[in-house]
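fyi for ur records
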Amino acid sequence: MLLMQHIEKENNVLFPMAQMTLSAQQDAELVQRFEQLEEERIGPGRHEAFHELMHQLEQIYLKP
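which gave:
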């Protein structure tokens, strides 16, 4: 429950606040730096692999 509240606050408060504060150039630079860090820390293609794994687990455990 706490994690869901945290994610909701990020999505509905923090991210919109950042969108209003950062210029388009700052936003693009931030995205580029996150992508670079992600590739350096977890390796190329791993982000997509994690998303695929989440999708598979969702199909197994959260079927309607």
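The first helix runs from residue 2 to 21. thats all i got for now
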